[in-house]
Amino acid sequence: MGRNNLKLILLKIISALAIFVAGCGSDEVTTEEENDSSVDEPVTLTIVSFVHDNHPLTRDVIPMWMEQIEEGTDGAVQLEWTGGPESIPTGEQFDAVSSGVADITFNTSSFYGHLMPESLSMLMSPYSPAEERENGYFDYLNSRHEEQNQVYLGRFLGPNPFYFWSNEQMKSLDDFENLNFRSNPTYHEILEELNTTVTDIEPGEVYTALDRNMVDGFGFTLMGPHEDGWTEVTRYIIDEPFLNQNGTILINKDTFESLPSDLQETMKDITAEFEKDMIDYFHAENETTWETIEAEGIERIELTDEDSERFQEIVHDVYWEMLERDAPDEIDNLRELLLDDEFDVTSIYE
């Protein structure tokens, strides 16, 4: 073989190697670019809620949070509200988020208290959400939810206490005795302590039950009964608010931790500010609701000071006895976090 032919062969080999190396380099750049673009693609998370999407407790609130999260993350997190109980039954939503079937739920601990009885202590907190973030209670709740593979982002129902509504004109607390009220787990044992007969009725059947005198009254927040038509067949509201709210925003822990750390922090910070917005929102909505139901003919019944004090003591004792019974391993922590001689749960209504 001549020297010229050898040079030609060597040049071809070098050229082929150069093309191969360039090709490999091109693949690496492409891969890096693809990885970069995948990071920039928005993540879509699904939301389910404990009530339907047109309910006054959710119809404005959830879209407000969604908008703030999407804007605050510059679109990196997109949210899809798939619906309420018609999407996933309320009692199954907590498990659905734990397992990853849904990413986020706007729920209340009343519907998963049988799995996490300590979460019902939220109803007895005398503190604002901001105070709970400072005194350790928020961190406590998050640690307990994490054991269920969920991250507790915060509250969403604001100062929105419960009331008892009735078709009987009560003159004293003793008049609860022998009446029949539609109940739910939130105030079931309170009514029993008042010697009231309790009946479990699905929300969609409450109007008919009231209209046909199957029950004498029910418990609920101020918002909701008017929109659901219950006030058409109800005459009185006992103006004695009780309990804090226990609305929770929960996200699947694996899903949350798969997000970049800056997005996690952004979602936490936005929710903390959102809690403050909810206080103003529900104060305004409750004032409007009072005007609406009174214009509709609903009469307020006010308890005497003595009955008011007795009623709040019943609520307090029932819940702490229930927590001691159902969450014995957590009761000392809860007492340390929530019991304060200077405050009681009614302070949050102001």
UniProtKB/TrEMBL annotation:
User: Residue span of the signal peptide, if any?
Assistant: 1-18
Q: Name one Pfam family in it.
A: DctP
Q: Which UniProt keywords apply?
A: Signal, Transport
In terms of InterPro entries, this protein maps to: DctP_fam, TRAP_DctP_sf
> Which biological process terms from the Gene Ontology are attached to this UniProt entry?
transmembrane transport
Which Gene3D superfamilies does the protein's record reference?
A: Bacterial extracellular solute-binding protein, family 7
Keyword check for Isomerase, yes or no: no
The record's family statement is: Belongs to the bacterial solute-binding protein 7 family.
Please report the name of this protein according to its UniProt entry. TRAP transporter substrate-binding protein DctP
The upper taxonomy is:
Bacteria, Bacillati, Bacillota, Bacilli, Bacillales
